[in-house]
């Protein structure tokens, strides 16, 4: 062999070539290890792994890599690495937060035949914590932005956008399940006078107190939203006329008796209520051709008509339209 040329791979003796490969694997900026797929014994663990998880000694892979793990991990990927005949079936890529150091890794796992013929798992795990942290922060920011986009700033209730978004789904669900659904609209009476007499900030305080009182009277599936100004709407899934009327009257009573205190002065507000019901329990028929198909827009329009009637007939009362 000419003196200055590197040796060809086939000229290197096996012991040297093992060392050459180990040198490469030990230089990688990623965990590389090999574990017996039956016994979980660690057969190879590179220097990167040792620097993070320590020396393997006689530990099983799960004892070495995971916190407090005394038996094979539930999330062990071994079953994913072999086909139904028990033969290696390619690379499986997954992401995982290590239970010992809390860092995120992208793992590339593969079953291979070891030098003595047994099946082993080789894993190459790259630290992706920085990318994952940014991803999680973006997800949280998106969730926060979505929540803000749905929320009325003053009262913390759902806003008009969220009311239609979620409300349409509730109406569709009620239609599918053939359940009654009620819609209530209410509007604070002579609210301009409250602002004029007590000031805009006092008006804000009153709106918060009134809506809190209303929210406290509702069930978890009910949807209360501020549509704008001093106007609110409630969707009551699986609620027929009698129950909706009972609730609207309770709300009317609670609001009228709610003391609102501003700078040691106490005053009261009243509200007018409009109510309508979609009786999705009815089958579509010639007698009632449109009973099973009514939109949230239509329900809101009917509730608004009833609310106007309540305003025109003296306020502080509940009016209703016939079932849609
Ligand atoms: N403080 C406060 N006032 C608001 C807010 N939004 C709307 N308003 C006030 O609510 C009042 C609504 O007045 P109108 O629409 O005339 O109704 P009203 O005085 O309540 O009379 P009726 O509805 O007919 O009983 C206006 O003075 C608005 O400025 C708010 O967020 N905070």
Task: Give descriptors for this structure.
324 residues; alpha+beta; Beta-Lactamase; Alpha-Beta Plaits; 2 domains; five-stranded antiparallel sheet; five-stranded mixed sheet; 9 helices; 12 strands; 38% helix; 23% strand; elongated; diguanylate cyclase; Nucleotide_cyclase; diguanylate cyclase activity; Rev_trsase/Diguanyl_cyclase; Diguanylate_Cyclase
Structure description:
The longest helix has 22 residues. Helix content is 38%, strand content 23%. It folds into 2 domains: 123 residues, 2-Layer Sandwich (Beta-Lactamase); 170 residues, Alpha-Beta Plaits, CATH 3.30.70.270. Helix 6 crosses helix 7. The model has no long low-confidence stretch (mean pLDDT 92). It has 9 helices and 12 strands. The structure holds guanosine-5'-triphosphate (GTP). Guanosine-5'-triphosphate binds next to strand 6, helix 6 and helix 7.
- The fraction of residues assigned to DSSP E strands is 15-25%
> SS-based structural class?
alpha+beta
- According to DSSP, the number of beta strands is 12
- CATH topological fold name of the largest domain: Alpha-Beta Plaits
Instruction: Please work out how many helical segments DSSP would assign.
Output: 9
Summarize the main sheet. 5 strands, antiparallel
CATH architecture of the largest domain: 2-Layer Sandwich
Task: Quote the average pLDDT.
Answer: 92
As for the number of domains, it is: 2
- Tell me which ligands are bound: guanosine-5'-triphosphate
What gyration radius follows from the Cα positions, in whole Å? 34 Å
Strand order of the largest sheet: 2-1-5-4-3
Shape by Cα distribution: elongated
H/E series? HEEHHEEEHHEHHEEHEEEHE
Cofactor: Mg(2+)
Enzyme class: transferase
EC number: 2.7.7.65
Catalytic activity: 2 GTP = 3',3'-c-di-GMP + 2 diphosphate
């Amino acid at each position: 062999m000419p003196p200055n040329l590197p040796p060809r791979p086939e000229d290197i003796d096996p012991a040297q070539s093992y060392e050459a490969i180990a040198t490469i694997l030990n230089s990688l900026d990623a965990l590389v290890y090999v574990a017996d797929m039956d016994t979980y014994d660690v057969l190879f663990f590179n220097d990167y792994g040792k620097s993070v998880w320590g020396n393997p000694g006689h530990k099983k892979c799960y004892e070495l890599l995971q916190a407090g793990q005394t038996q094979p991990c539930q999330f062990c990927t071994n079953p994913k690495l072999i086909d139904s005949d028990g033969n290696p079936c390619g690379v499986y890529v997954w992401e995982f937060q290590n239970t010992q150091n809390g860092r995120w890794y992208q793992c590339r796992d593969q079953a291979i035949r070891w030098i003595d013929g047994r099946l082993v798992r080789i894993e190459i795990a790259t630290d992706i914590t920085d990318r994952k942290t940014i991803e999680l922060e973006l997800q949280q920011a998106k969730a926060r932005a979505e929540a803000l986009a749905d929320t009325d700033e003053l009262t913390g209730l759902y806003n008009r956008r969220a009311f239609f978004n979620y409300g349409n789904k509730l109406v569709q669900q009620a239609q599918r399940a053939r359940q009654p659904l009620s819609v209530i609209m209410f509007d604070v009476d002579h609210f301009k006078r409250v602002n004029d007499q007590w000031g805009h900030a006092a008006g804000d305080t009153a709106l918060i107190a009134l809506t809190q009182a209303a929210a406290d009277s509702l069930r978890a599936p009910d949807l209360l939203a501020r549509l704008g100004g001093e106007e609110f709407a409630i969707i009551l899934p699986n609620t027929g006329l009698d129950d909706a009327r009972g609730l609207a009257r309770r709300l009317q009573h609670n609001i009228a008796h709610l003391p609102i205190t501003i700078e040691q002065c106490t005053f009261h507000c009243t509200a007018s209520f409009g109510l309508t019901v979609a009786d999705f329990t009815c089958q579509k028929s010639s007698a009632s051709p449109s009973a099973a198909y009514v939109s949230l827009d239509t329900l809101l329009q009917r509730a608004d008509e009833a609310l106007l009637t309540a305003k025109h007939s003296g306020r502080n009362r509940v009016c209703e339209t016939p079932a849609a």
